[in-house]
Write a structure and sequence with these properties.
alpha+beta, 6 strands, 34% helix, 181 residues, four-stranded mixed beta sheet
């Protein structure tokens, strides 16, 4: 009988320890997930040639943005606004802000801030260069995008400076690319 009582006490202690360990494992605090940095990706930005001979590509690395195409487009445009690294000429003012870039089928809708329009140099050449540097940069780097539509602070826009019709989405014009580069 003493042996049976010792066995029951040992079984109860062992069972209690196992139950405690089981509950601790089920209630374990989840560890934070450590994500690897996504890295960098190379993009081609279209800037103006110093001799006004068209647009010239400049490669740049930006943070990879994975599957979020809108975020990738916006990051690429922000890099375009940072200006060229070499002898090329900026096509959009350094204070340019892109409120958003949204995907609608094969078209990207870019919502510009008034600062870009107000700071853009006057004239048809400046307007055409600015618009097509953005359009060509987007469509070249993101092949699923075929056209770019522009908004100004959330509203439809007919032109940036009175010279280029922006009522409809624009397709790229790689004929503006200078043979130098």
């Amino acid at each position: 009988m003493l042996l049976l009582a010792a066995f029951i006490v040992a079984a109860a202690i062992l069972g209690t320890l196992m139950l405690k360990k089981y509950l601790e494992r089920r209630q374990a605090v989840p560890r934070p997930v450590h994500t690897q940095p996504a890295g960098k990706v190379s993009v081609s930005l279209f800037f103006a040639s110093p001799d006004n001979g068209g647009l010239v590509r400049e490669s740049r690395e930006i943070e990879a943005c994975n599957a979020d195409l809108s975020r990738c487009v916006q990051a690429t445009l922000e890099e375009l606004a940072n200006g060229p690294m070499g002898d090329l000429v900026p096509t959009i003012p350094a204070n340019s802000t892109f409120r958003s870039a949204t995907i609608q089928g094969d078209t990207v809708v870019v919502d510009l801030d008034k600062g870009l329009v107000n700071s853009l140099p006057k004239g048809s050449s400046a307007e055409m260069t600015a618009v097509y540097s953005m359009v060509n940069t987007i469509t070249y780097n993101f092949p699923t995008v075929k056209r770019v539509k522009f908004l100004l602070e959330g509203h439809a826009i007919t032109t940036l400076g009175g010279h280029l019709d922006l009522e409809k989405p624009l397709e790229p014009d790689f004929r503006m690319e200078s043979p130098q580069g």
